[in-house]
Amino acid sequence: QGETALLLAVEAGHDQIASLLIKRGADINAQARNKDTPWLLAGARGRTGMLKEMLPKGPDYALRNRFGGSALIPACHYGHVDTVRFLTAKSKIDINHINSLGWSCLLEAVILGEGGPVHQEVVRIVLAAGASPNLADKDGVTPLVHAQRRGQAVIAKLIEQAGGK
Predict the structure, then answer these.
(1) Which of 144, 125, 124 shows the shortest CA–CA distance to 136?
(2) Cα-to-chain-centroid distance, residue 42
(3) Residues in CB range of 125: below 8 A, 6 or more apart
(4) pTM of the complete model
(5) Which residues of 122-146 are buried (b: 16+ CB within 10 A; e: fewer)?
(6) What phi and psi, each to the nearest 5 degrees, are found at residue 37?
(7) To 5 degrees, how large is the angle CA 136–CA 137–CA 138?
C-alpha cells in the first residue's frame, strides 16, 4: 500500500520508533496510496510530539490527504487541542485551506465536532490564529450558521465575537 516504516509507526503511536526513524532521515513526506504521509497522519492522530520532531525536516505543505485536507483539518475534527495549538503556532500551515468537501479547519471543528469544551478550545485557537469566521462551505453555509443549527451556543458566540455572520 506504499506505507513506510515511519507511517506505520505514526499510525500505531510508536513514539520511540518514529523518533528514531525521523532522526535517521525517514521521509516525512512519503505518500502512501491512500495519500497519507507521516506528517499528515500525525496531525490527524494528534501525535504532537511526532509533529515537533518532523517540523525541522520540512513538511511539504502542498501534499493533501485523501479528503484534500492538511494536517490541521482532521486535528480540528478530532479535537486534538495540543496538535491544533502547535500547528497554528509553529508550522506554516494554511489556516484557511479548504478541503475537497468544501470545509476549512473551522468548519470541520463545527460540523464534525460535538460542540463541547474540547471543540470550543479548538475554535478559539483557530480563530485566534486567523481562521476566517465567514469562510462558508460549498453550499454557502457559514460556520456561525452551522454552529447555530447544531445547538453549539458557545461556539456560535465565539464565531460571532470574531466577526462571523
Answers:
(1) 144
(2) 10
(3) 81, 84, 85, 88
(4) 0.96
(5) bbbbbbebebbbebbbeeeebbbbb
(6) -125, 165
(7) 125
For the four alpha carbons of 112, 39, 135 and 100, in that order, the dihedral sign comes to negative
- The amino acid present at 159, given as its one-letter code, is I
Read off the pLDDT band of 150 (50, 70, 90).
Answer: very high
The per-residue pLDDT for range 12-42, each reduced to its tens digit, is 999 999 999 999 999 999 999 999 999 999 9
Return the C-alpha torsion angle 144, 83, 129, 60, nearest 10: -110
Distance, CA of 54 to CA of 93 (rounded, Å): 14
**Element counts in the chain: helices (H) and strands (E):** 10, 0
